[in-house]
Amino acid sequence: MRKDSMDLAGVVGMVVFANVLAFNQVTIKFTNAGFSPVFAAGVRSGLALLVLGLWVLLTGRKITGLRATLWPGLLLGLVFSSEFLFLFTALDMTSVSRASVVFYSMPVWLAAIAHFVLPGERLSARRALGLVLAMAGVALALSDPQSRGAGDLRGDVLAVLASLSWAGIALIVRLTKVSTLPPEGQLFWQITVSAVVLTGLAPLFGPLLREVDLLSLFGLGYGTLVASMGFLFWLRVMTIYPASDIASFSFLSPVMAVAFGWLIFDEPVGIKFLGALGLVAVGVVLINRRSRKRVKPVENGRPPG
C-alpha cells in the first residue's frame, strides 16, 4: 500500500536497514582476512545469484526483459564489478571509517554529474550547498592526522573510485533501458556479470585464499544476503514510501559505519573526524532531500552499500 509519508514502521525499518548496510563494511574486513578481496567480491556475487534464484523460485516472480537489455545490462554489470573490486580492495588497505566516509559520499558525485547530463537535475541552491558541505567533509576526513595513521592513501583513492562507480550505476539505470527492468532484473545483471568478471580477475591479484576461519565465512554469508535481499528490500520500501523521505536516511550508514569501525577495530575517531562526518551527513541530506514530485522512484539504482 502506497503511503504519503514515513510512519513508525518505516522509520524503524530504515534505521535497522541503515545499520545493516553500515555493518557490511565491517564484514568485508572480516571476509578479506580469509579471502583475497577480488575473489571474495566475486564469490559473494555468485552466492547472491543463487539467493536471487531461490527468491524468484519461491515467490513465483518472473525476470522479464533481459534480452532487450543485453548491452546496457552488461555495462551495468561491468560498472558494478568495478565498484566492488575497488571497495573490497580499499577496505583491505584503509580503515572502515575512512573508506565509509568517502564511499557514502556517492550522492555528491552523482549530483555533480547529473547537473550536466540528466534533464531536470540541475543543482538548486540547497543542493549546491549540500554538495559543497559534503565535499568539504570528505576533504577534512582524509586530512585528519589521527585517522590517517590507521588508513592508507591508496585505499582512500580506491574508495573514491568505488563511490564514482556507484554513481555510474545510478546513471546507467536512469539513462538506459535497464530502468524498464523489475528489481530482480536489475540485480540479475549486476551480480551475474560481476560473479564472472571478478572471479575471473581474482587470480591476477594474488592467492585466492588467506586464513579462512568462521569469522571470514560469516562475513561472506552476511555480505551475500546484503547484496541480494538488501537490494530487494530497498526496492520494496521505495514502492511504499516517498523516495525523498527514504533518501533522508542515507546519512545514517556512514555515521554507523564509523561507529562500528571505532567499536570493533578500535579505529581512531577524533573531534576533527567527527566534524568531517557531520559535514558529509548534512551535505548528503541536503542533496537528497527534494520535492516529492521530482524524485525518481529508483534514484540510486540500488541501496547505499
From TrEMBL:
UniProt protein name: Putative inner membrane transporter yiJE
Family to which the UniProt record says this protein belongs: Belongs to the EamA transporter family.
Encoding gene (name): yijE
Membrane topology: Multi-pass membrane protein
EamA domain residues: 10-142, 154-288
GO cellular component: membrane
Database matches in Pfam families: EamA
Origin: domain of life: Bacteria
InterPro entries reported in the protein's UniProt record: AA-Vitamin_Transporters, EamA_dom, EmrE-like
UniProt keyword annotations, A-Z: Membrane, Transmembrane, Transmembrane helix
Compartment(s) where it occurs, according to its Swiss-Prot or TrEMBL record: Membrane
UniProt-listed Gene3D superfamilies: 1.10.3730.20
Keyword RNA-binding: no
Entry annotated with the keyword Membrane: yes
Segments passing through the bilayer: 38-58, 70-89, 101-118, 125-142, 157-175, 187-208, 214-234, 246-265, 271-287
